[in-house]
Amino acid sequence: MAEEARTLYFGYGSNLDRNDWLEWCEEKGVNPSGIEEITPCWLPDYRLKFHYRSSRRRGGAADVVPAGCGHAVPGVLFALSDNALANMDRKEGHPNYYERCNVNVLLPNGTSMEAVTYTLVEHRKGEYVAPTAHYAALVRTGLERRNLPIADLKMAIENSDESYPVPYLFVYGTLMAGEYRGATLEQHTFQPGVTAQVKGKLYNLGNYPGMRPSEEDRVFGELYRLNDVFLGLQSLDRVEGFYGFKSDDSLFKRTLIEVETEEGKVWAWSYMYAEGIDEEHRIQSGDWRALDS
Predict the structure, then answer these.
(1) I need a surface site. Which of 26, 44, 79, 211 has the fewest CB within 10 A?
(2) Assigned domain for 163 exists
(3) pLDDT at residue 2 tops 70
(4) Within a 10 A sphere around the Cβ of 14, how many other Cβ atoms?
(5) Which residues form the domain of 220?
(6) Taking 70 as the threshold, does the pLDDT of residue 114 lie above it?
(7) Is 231 exposed, middle or buried (CB count within 10 Å of its CB: 0-12, 13-18, 19+)?
(8) Do residues 172 and 153 share a domain?
(9) Which string of DSSP letters, residue by residue, matches 18-60?
(10) How far apart are CA 13 and CA 20, in angstroms?
(11) Residue 293 pLDDT exceeds 60
């Protein structure tokens, strides 16, 4: 028997809460099965907004809108059966209220994947509408349960123009302190970096290293806090040869990964090598500086 087709779906807002889905399905008399949670993930170059009043929610309901460099919305990647997709269409009011669209999401291992999500149709967007405390709590709890930051949610609730939920950057090569591009990063940071590590494999590309995804291996480097996320990432994108999430020509691709430090785990921007590489160039230690020791 052929395997049932599944649609990858980026969920945000109230769809981070399982009980909210179950309650809606019970209210409508539909089967809640067919939805599988895969992993936390991020929608880059978007931000969360509350500019629509939902009669069902009795307040503002979340929407994601395109935004510039450094913006990102945390959420969850789900797999939906055809039946679950039809029910999600109905829950979101597709296509009259929210409409389905294709997006590219960043996964925790540093890779990306295409998925669908729902955005508010243009003629329904209006002025800021505050969400109810109950709705905000649904979203906040859904994020916290998956170790995702709530900064983007807080800024959206406050209707703030600022929306940079991840101010951190993980570097592992020539941007580290004392390396030949270290001075470039110093222009965009508040304070010295701290020792950190991430899941990944490290490769020697000659004058600089490149990181590739791996669940079993570790790459060692430094974690920094950017003093201006927008300007810092724009500058570093040029250094790393990253031309945007829709480009296939980037030398390195910017992504969001979980970083381990002595103080715990945080999400940070980093750059993955985008081209193929031979295993013979692998740096087994995962430490670029170990090559000089």
Answers:
(1) 26
(2) no
(3) no
(4) 23
(5) 168-292
(6) yes
(7) middle
(8) no
(9) HHHHHHHHHHHT----SEEEEEEEEEETEEEE---EETTTTEE
(10) 11
(11) no
